[in-house]
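Let us work through a complete example step by step.
Step 1: write down the sequence.
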Amino acid sequence: MRRIAFLWIGFTTACVALGAAAAFETRASRIQAIKTVGIVSAIGEEMSLTQAGLTRLGATAQSLPISAWALDDLIVQQATRLLDGRFRVQSLTYRRAAFAAVRDLVVAPVNLLRSDPFKELVRSDVAPRGLDAYIVITRAKSKLGNGRNVEGVGLAEYRTLLADYGLIHALYEVRVIDGKSFDVIEKRAAAPLDNTGTMQLAGPSGPIDDTLGGSASSERLRAAVVDLIMRSLPVTFADMHLIGDQ
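Step 2: predict the structure and record it as tokens.
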């Protein structure tokens, strides 16, 4: 019986591995067949201010408008530059606020089986239709220590009895959505840029520099956020096999 159990476990593991390999090959072949793409970006209209750990009673997350930073326009420009050459990138019109309003997603391993809230938005709110695929870049979430979720672009502070830790973050995820069936071909959250530092988020982030300033009008703060996005976007695209390794 023990031998049969071991054989069954081995057979099941092999089937899972083969299934994963087949799914990867299917996604890779579908991406390979893409010729025309459009880019949607909806992460940069506001910046969150979050405190976690030992915080004062009743402390709540806050947000500040940063639409003047034009982060989404910058992301579309950078994504176009990265993808142009392999794909024909076409400009889109879409309701950015509709994409930004979807806020219930958490940074997690790729899961293409669950229903995806962005599929219908691409189908109904994006023009022109008929492209081979649409690249959709939206906010993602991550846990700050064992405390609150942080989301998208923001500043986060985590307090302990011994020290305070500050992070600036730009958390996002990228979807490749089929332009005919509107299935999600691939989805991936941008990964951390390095593994150093006391506090870590599951996405692009870095320690707060005293020179950054604490308001949304700080040009250094904007520059730090832009740096996180510009450095992580080519890595994320490469991980998704949309471009060559960076």
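Step 3: interpret the result. Residues 11-24, 105-113 have pLDDT under 50 and may be disordered.
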